[in-house]
Amino acid sequence: MMIRNLLLIFVLFINVRVFSQVTRFVGPESVGSGDGMTAANAADFLNTNFWTDIQLLLQTQPVTVKFIAGIYSRAYTEKRLYLNQKGHAKNQLVLEGDLNNTIFTAPTGYQESAIMIWIYNSRNIIIKNFSFTGNGKVNYVLRMTSGQGGVTKDILVENCHWYDMKGVEYGATGVGQPTTSYVTYKNCSFKRIGSGSGAHMIYNAYGSHHISIIDSHFEDCTGDYVRFRDNLDYGTVSGSTFIRTSGYSNRPFISVPLFNDIDPGDEVFATNYSFTNNVFTNATEAIKFYSSGYDPIGRNHLLTASEGGILSGGTAQQKKNLLLNNFNINTDLIRLDDNTFNIITREVTMESVTNYGSQSRGWTGAVDISELFTNTANLLPWEENYYNLRAGVWNNESRTLYYNLGAGTGGEDKIFTGIQPVKVGGSSISTESIPGFLPYIPETDGGGFARVAYPSSNAAFTLQDMSSDESTLKISSSGSGYPAKFSLYNILKTSPVSSLFFTISFKDSTYTQVLWTCSMGNHTGIDNLFSDGSFLSASSATSNPEVFNAFRWRIARTNPNVIDFQYRNKTLESENASYTTVNIPYFYRGGEFAIEVYANNDEDPKSYTRGGIIYEIPSRAYHIWSNGERILKEIDNYAFPANQLAVGLPINSFMIHGTNSSSTPNPDVIVGDNSAELTIGKIRMDFASIVTLPVTLTSFDVKQQQGNVLLNWATNSEVDNAYFEILRSTDGKGFSEIGNVKGTGNSRSVNSYTFTDKYPLEGLNYYRLRQVDYDGVGKYSEVKTVNIGFIESETLKVLIPANIKEIHFSYTSQDTGESVLQVLDVQGRKYTEEKIQLKKGENYFFIESSLPSGVYIALLRLKDQAIIAKFIK
C-alpha cells in the first residue's frame, strides 16, 4: 500500500467531497451509540432500520452514506448487504468507501454465498471507493438486478477494485433483468478473478440495457472478462485495458454469448454496441459473438454448409447480410474505433456451435469478422442520444416526455373503457398514488403531475380518441372570469434549456371574446400558477415570477375568424408586463396548428437543430414555430427580465388556460358562455442535457513552501462544478488522488482555490486537477511539477543495528499522545506501520523489519504534523 492511501484518510475527514446535504456513517459493526450520525458512532452496515431511515431522508434531500475503514467480511460470513427499493429519482444516494481501506472480503472456510452486495429495484445510486478481495466461494460479489414490477437504473460504480478472488463462480459484479438499465462502471480495476471458465469479471445478462464500462482495468480472469449475454442492448466499453498473462485461461476479453439449452432457444442477440479506445493484450480473441445450442424462434443461428461458406469466405456485404438475417446482428450499429490489439489472433470473432442436443445443419465453427463493423470516431445515432454529446446544441428529435392524454397508467385506465369521449365534472390532479381524470406522468417518462381545473360548471374538459396515441383534450372556456386550465408541472430531470411541442385548434362562438394563454416555467412551491386555479396576470411588474414565457391567442367578437397572436413582453424590470400583438395572421379558426417552442433560460446562448439547420437562441429567450414557420422570425429575444423566473432554473412546467371576456356588446347575448373551445394534443417536452465546459480555469500554479507543496488555481466561470480532485504522480503517467476541494457550483465571478500537499514525495512531483461536475463528468487540467528534497529531522533519529532485523528510533516529544510510524521507500511504497504511544521527553522504540538495501523514509504522523527522517539500509 502506498503512502498516499493513508494520507487520503486524513484528507477525506477534513475536506469531504460534497455530493449531498446529509451524511451518515456505517462500519463493519456498530460503533459508539451506533446512530450513524458521526464516524465515531457509525451504525452497523447490516442494520435494516438504518437503511429504512436513509430511504426516508432521500424523500427530501440527497444522502451520502460513508463506510468507514474496516473489514466488512460479515457481508459474506453472516448475510449480504441487501438494498431493496432504495434511492430516489431526484435525490441521489452515494455509498462511499474509505478508498482502499473499506474492504469487503470473502474468507475461505465458510459456506458459499450467493451475493455479497445486492442492489435490487433501486435507482440513482453512486457506489465508489470500495475494495473487494478473498477466495471464498461466491456467485456474485456486487450485483444489480430488478424484478416483481420494479426498476433498477442510474447506477454508477466508480473507483472500486476486485483483486484476488478465486472463489467467484459467475461474476465479480454484473447486472441482470430487462428493467435494469443505465449502469456505469468507471475507473474500476479487476485482477486475478475466478478458478473456472464460468467466472467472469463483469457479467451482464438477460435484457438489461445501457451498460457502460469506462476507463477500467482488467487483468487475468479464468472466464470472459466482460460479458453481455442474451438481448443485452446498448453496451459500451471505452478507454479500458485488458491483459492476460501466461498461466491464465485464453478467454475472450469481451463476449456477447447466447446459451440456448432448450428447443426452441430463448436467448437472442441485441445489436447496439460501442467498443472504442481500448487496449487488448495477449489473447486469441479480443471480442467474441457466440451462439451455442438451438435456434430461437424466427432466427437461424445453426448454419448450413452454404451459409457457413458465406460467413467464412463471402464478400463483406454478404457476411453483413447473413449476420443480420440469421442472427439479427446489425454490424452498422456496432462501432469499433481506435482500439489497440497486442498479440491478438482475431480482433472480433463470430462462432456458432451445436450444444445441449442440438443438431448441426452442416457448419459449425468460428470466423474473424473484424472488418464488418463501423470504424469511425463519429458517434452512432444511438450513442448521441445516450451520451447527450451535442455540445451546445439540443436535439429536438429526441423524446423525453411524450404525454399521451388518453393512455392511462396506474388506476386511470379504469376510466377509459371505450373510445367514446369522456368528460370530467370537476377539478382533478393526477399523481402516481392518486390517479385522476388525466394520466399521471410516470417516472420512466420524466415524472410529475397533471391537472385540470375550473371554477364553474360553464367550463369543461373532454378527452377524445382515448384508444390511441392521437388522444386529445378539448377545453371549454370558463365564463366566470377564472380560467379553465390544463397543466403539467413539477416534471423531474428537466433543465433550463427545454422544448415544447403540441397541436392546437380553435372553435369559438361568434359572440364570445376569449383568450387562450400558454406559458412555461418552474413549479417551486405549493401555491403556484401551474398547480393552482388562478390565471396569468399581464399587468404587474412582479407577478407570476415562476413564468419564463407566455403567449396567447385572442379571438374578438368583431372578427372571430381572425385570431390575434400575442406575446407577453417587458423591456425593463420595473415596468408592468403587457402583451404585444403580432400583426401577421398565423392562426385562424377551425385549423390545426403544430406549435414548437424552444426556450433557453440558461446564462449562455444555446442552439437547437431543426430540419438540419442550427438556430441560436440568446440567454433567457425563446423561439416559437407554427406549422413549420417561425413566428416573429425577425426578433430573437422575447424573454422576461431577471426579476421573473431566475436565470438557470429548470423549465419543468407547462400550462394552457382559457377565459371569456366579461363585457358584452349585445344585451341579447349571455356573457361568459362556454361555447369557445380549444383542442390540444400530441404533447411532447424535451429537456436538454447540454454538455458545456463546466469550468473555465484561468490559472493553475504549484510551488514548494517549507517542505510542503502549495497549489493555487482560479476560475472565472463555473457551471455545475461539484469539486476538484487533486492528483499527484511520481512519473507524470500514473496519477493518484491525494485530496479534493469543493467547487462553487455555478458562478460568473472569479473564484480562487488552494490546496496544500503536506506529504510530497522526494524528487519530482507531478500535479494536475480533475474538475468534476454534478453528473460525475470530469475534465483534466495541465500538469505542473515541483522538485522536493527531504530534510532529515533533528528530533527523529534512526539506527539500524548490524545483523539484527530491527530498526531503532529515538524521538524527543513535546507532548504525550498516540502517533503512527511508517517506513516507506522514496516512491511512497509502505513497508511497515506501527502505532506508537509517545511520552513527553525522549522516546525509544523499534520495529521489526527485513528491508532490502536502499533509501527509505521514516514518517512519524502526529496529531497536527508529520516528522520525516531519511535513512539508508
UniProtKB/TrEMBL annotation:
Gene3D superfamilies: Immunoglobulins, Single-stranded right-handed beta-helix, Pectin lyase-like. It comes from the Bacteria. InterPro entries: Ig-like_fold, Pectin_lyas_fold, Pectin_lyase_fold/virulence. This is Por secretion system C-terminal sorting domain-containing protein. The lineage of its organism: Bacteria, Pseudomonadati, Bacteroidota, Sphingobacteriia, Sphingobacteriales.
